[in-house]
Amino acid sequence: MPRTRLYRHGELVSENFPPEDISDYLPEDGATVWLDMCAPTEADLALIGEELGLHELAMEDAVHAHQRPKLDRYESHCYLTAYAVRFDPESCQLTADEVGVFVTPRAVVTVRPDEGLDIDDVVARWDESKHLAASGVGFLVHGLLDYVVDSHFDAVQALDGNIEDLEDMVFAEQPDNTDMQRQALTLRRSLVTLRRVVLPMREVVNTLMRREHGIVDEAITPYFQDVYDHVLRASEWTESLRDLVTTIRETQLNIQSTRLNLIMKKVTGWAAIIAVPTAITGFYGQNVPYPGSGQPWGFWVSAMSILLLSGGLYLLFKRRDWL
After folding, report:
1. What superkingdom does the record give (predicted)?
2. What is the CATH number of the domain that holds 123?
3. pLDDT in tens, 166-182
């Protein structure tokens, strides 16, 4: 069901009234209306569009999900697209929840394709900062963006923790390379998704704060600047984590290569040692007369040669750290 709210001069005066009454409240002095629609049909949006004078292109973007984060400016209103995110530390999967926002001089309409974005948390933020409600639509937009950007920050923090665990796995004595590679690729994919929704928010918030749009007044400007600062920090943190995952992956490959070289070095050293008795016993196994053939001292010469040469090679390889 659609949710509605009516603020008048910064005070909440009505809630959950029928959307059809919005046009009756808008002409009132100091009135600000909020309407939330979850998975609306084209007919639902068309009805609201007629009442608020929404542009057909903006309504088309609201119906078709998976828009990029943006702020479009039309003659009578703005249309904003943003994504809140949720990160699951167990599966390392990131989920992005889209919300479209129509911002008119006296009304804010939020459109959600599904229940992924928790609108109750947004309403709770409005209730916690009701002293800013006198700023009208700027107050409503700030609460929504503050919730969205905080979800970005929470996801970045959780990703940072998982990447630290991945670093510990790289230097483990017996690492599970398959699990490590899976986690690294999943984290990288999540960071790519997060980057796509975080980076454009810098331009979105910065554009909203421009005076010509008439959305942000002087009273709420510092709060939008705080949101913008959080956007910058989340963006920089996301970029650094993306580079860190790449570095971890390269380090893992270098460690695997080093371990493989060490194994090959040891195998080659032992193969050289084993080649000595093979050569000597092969020489003494010839079916032709040779010095010591058929004599006990010939056996002892071959045995001592094997022990001395093999021992010498072992000590030489050990001294050079080949074994």
Report:
1. Bacteria
2. 3.30.460.20
3. 888 877 767 667 777 88
Residue 169 lies inside a defined structural domain of this protein:
yes
Which has the closest alpha carbon to 139: 110, 101, 108? Answer: 108
pTM: 0.79
The residue segments making up the domain with residue 291 are: 285-319
The greatest distance separating any two alpha carbons of the chain, rounded to the nearest whole angstrom, comes to 122
Q: 57-76, pLDDT tens digit by residue?
A: 998 888 887 889 999 999 88
End-to-end C-alpha distance for the chain, whole angstroms: 73
Kind and range of the H or E run holding 195: helix 177-208
Q: Point out which residues pair with 310 in neighbouring strands.
A: none
* Same-domain check for residues 298 and 191: no
Number of domains comprising the chain:
2
DSSP 284: H
Q: At what angle do helices 137-170 and 177-208 cross, to 10 degrees?
A: 160
Residue among 158, 163, 154, 151 nearest 243 (CA): 163
